[in-house]
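From: lab user (bench 3)
To: helpdesk
Subject: output format question, protein + magnesium ion

Hello, I'm new to running complex predictions and I'm not sure whether the block I got back is the full result or only part of it. Here's what I submitted:
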Amino acid sequence: MDIPENIKQKLENLPIDKHPGSICIANYKGGVGKTTITTLLGYYLANKGKKVLLIDIDPQCSLSLAAGVDPAKVDKTDFTIYHLVTPNKWANIAKVKFSQYIDAVPDIHAPKELKMIRGSFDIDELDKLIIREITQKPNADDTLYYYCKNMLNAFSDFDYVLIDCPPNKMYLTQAMLRACSYFLTVTIPDKISVYGMPRLLKWVKEIPKHEKPYLLGCVLNAVNRAGGYEYGTINQQQATEELYKSIRDQLEPVERKIIDNKPVLAHVPRLDVISRFLSQGANKSAWYELRHTGSDQQSVSEIMMNLINRITKRIEDYAKI
Ligand SMILES: Nc1ncnc2c1ncn2[C@@H]1O[C@H](COP(=O)(O)OP(=O)(O)OP(=O)(O)O)[C@@H](O)[C@H]1O
Ligand SMILES: [Mg+2]
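Helpdesk reply: Thanks, we reran it on our side. This is the complete output you should expect:
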């Protein structure tokens, strides 16, 4: 059965602009710090007074757990991302009450401007439902894209919507990337991880040009502050050069102009307090430590504020084009 033409048209006729602060945090490579950077960005942006919505689309639910959701209770609600993007919602978009899915962040220390949409351990099951739709109904992938784009637009009260993606090419990840205005990648300074970036960019390049999200840049994470060389790691400058060399040909001219040879937006050190921050759940005393520990080197707070300034500047630059 086809997606009925009237429903397809209805979705296509909804606002065409994307949410201007929608950002997917993505990389094919697993375990490089995508969830860590998404969570840190959410906390620091909200701490600065920005309204931030975190969306967890990874079946591992790491972002939900990092924000303090009790693992036993992740799925104990009808208001997860699973319920929000399940195929029977697509044609009924006008009836979906998007605000019902917005949850408080359980962490008692979290800035009050920070909100979330919970993940679900069943998201890979959802992907099977999506695949069924896509194989049985022509245009269903477009319908999912229009749905996601309009869902993000429904969160227009938020300055930023940050989407933590899984390290694979689920249909939902593809649709969210296509629906977002921007994407940001996170990698670690080893050769295998750095070379993972072009694969992501190649995949984004397959998105129709006028719907493509723009690359904001890359966060080089878990950089060894001591400057030592571990097996397989490369130094910061080498990593930056390798990264640009490997992605240069995949960039759109406008991206090359904005990124201007500088793909790396921040170098985030490998620190125990950062991994504690991610794992502490609903009572993050590490959030206090992160904000208040200074050192002779740049503190994490300074690094994050610089990262936020660079992201904001790149968004402004893209908006001017
Ligand atoms: N800068 C850092 N310093 C110390 N530990 C870190 C840092 N960044 C990430 N980690 C730790 O590395 C592990 C992986 O990080 P994270 O879950 O953010 O990666 P990911 O890319 O989201 O993984 P996945 O691909 O499975 O979703 C976590 O245990 C996290 O606490
Ligand atoms: Mg993750």
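A quick orientation on your result: The pocket of magnesium ion (ligand 2) is lined by residues 34-35, 58, 62, 164 (CB under 6 Å). Let us know if anything else is unclear.
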